[in-house]
Amino acid sequence: MGTLLNGFELAKKRRTELKDKVDEQLNKGNRAPSLTVVLVGDNPASQSYVKSKKKQAEEVGFTSEILILDKDASELEVLDTVTRLNNDKNVDGILVQLPLPKHINEDTIILAISPEKDVDGLHPLNVGLVTLNKGGTKPCTPKGIMTILNEYDIELEGKNALVIGRSRLVGQPIASLLLHKNATVTIAHSRTKNLEQLIAEHDIIVVAVGIPDFVKASSILPHHVLIDVGINRVDGKIVGDAEHESYEKAAYATPVPKGVGPMTVVSLLENTFETYLRRIEREEI
Ligand code: NAD
User: Fold this and answer.
1) Fold category of 140-261 in CATH
2) Does 219 score more than 90 pLDDT?
3) CA nearest ligand 1 atom 13, residue
C-alpha cells in the first residue's frame, strides 16, 4: 500500500507557520496583511469558496474583505472595483473569484489587476514570469502541488511526468513548474490518443480534467505518484478525477478530499503574505 499525501495536515502546518510570520510583522509595528476577494453574482459554489478563503485568511491574522457585486454588474463596474483596489494602499492581495458571469470578459478583468497584487497568479505578466522561471506569482493550485511534492521529498529530476488537462489554472502552469524541476513533461488533453499507454510510461501523473473516475485504478502502477486535482460533486459527495481505489495502488497519491484542495487555499495566503512583504520592502506600507 502506498503513502497518502496529506494536503489537509500540511496546509494546517503551513497556516500555523504563516500565523507566526504575521505575528512577527505585527510585533514590528506593521499592519496585518490584507486580502480582498471580489465576487460577482451569487453562484453557490463560488460563495462557499470565498467564505472559506476569508475565514482562513482571518485565522492566520490577515484582514480580509469580500466585495460582492450584483450578478448583472457591468464589466465597467468590475473594472472600476479592481482599479480602486489596485490604488488602495491598504490592500495587498486582490482575487477576483472565477468564473465570472458570461457577459464579463475574464481576460479583460484579469489584465486589469495590478500584477503586484495578483495573488491568484493569473495576470499574463505573472504567467510569463512563471513560465520562464523568472519569478512571478505562481497560481495557487500548482504552487500547492509543488509544496506537497517537496514536503514528501518526491524526486522530480529526470522523472517522466504526465499532466492530464491543459487549463491555464492548473494543467499548463503545473507542467511548467515540473519542467523547472527537471522532470520530462508530457501534457495530455481531450484530443490525446493512447492515454492508457501514456499513463503506463510515466512516473508522475497529475490529473486535472474535472471528470469523476477518469483515471482508472487498473491503470495505476506501484511506482506511480498520483496527483488528483479534480473536485467533482457526485451524489452530494466530493470526489476526484481518479478512482478512489487508485490512491492505494500508487506509491504516493493525493486523495480527494484532503489532498490538493486545502493546499490551494494555503498557497493563496502564502502568495498574499509574499506580496505584503514585498510592499513593506518597497515602503508602500
Ligand atoms: P478545465 O475544464 O479548465 O480543463 C479541463 C482540461 O481537461 C482541459 O484542458 C481538457 O483538455 C482536459 N480534458 C477534458 N477531457 C479530457 C479527456 N477525455 N482526456 C484528456 N484530457 C481531457 O478544468 P480545470 O480548471 O483545470 O479543473 C480541472 C479539475 O480540477 C476540476 O474538477 C476542478 O474543479 C478541479 N480544480 C481543483 C482545484 C483544487 O484546488 N483542488 C483547483 C482548480 C481546479
Assistant:
1) Rossmann fold (3.40.50)
2) yes
3) 190
Question: Is 142 touching ligand 1 by the criterion CB < 6 Å?
Answer: no
Question: Is 16 touching ligand 1 by the criterion CB < 6 Å?
Answer: no
pLDDT at 285: 86
Selected catalytic residue, list 53, 138, 143, 258 = 53
Residue 50 has pLDDT above 90, yes or no: yes
The domain over range 28-114 is classified in CATH as 3.40.50.10860: yes
Beta bridge partners of 30: none
Find cell 505518484 and name the residue: 225
The segment(s) of the chain belonging to CATH 3.40.50.10860 are 28-114
The three cell numbers locating residue 195:
492515454
CB 241 within 8 A of CB 208: yes
Q: How far is CA 74 from CA 70, 105, 108, 145, in A?
A: 9, 10, 12, 35
169-195 mean pLDDT: 98
| pTM of the shown model | 0.97
Count of CB atoms within 10 A of residue 136's CB? 18
pLDDT at 138 over 80: yes
- Tens of pLDDT, residues 231-257: 999 999 999 999 999 999 999 999 999
C-alpha to C-alpha distance for 129 and 133, rounded to whole angstroms: 6
Distance of CA 231 from the midpoint of ligand 1 (Å)? 9
**Residue (of 236, 3, 278, 238) closest to 115 by Cα position:** 278
Nearest in space to 185 (alpha carbons), one of 209, 206, 216, 212:
206
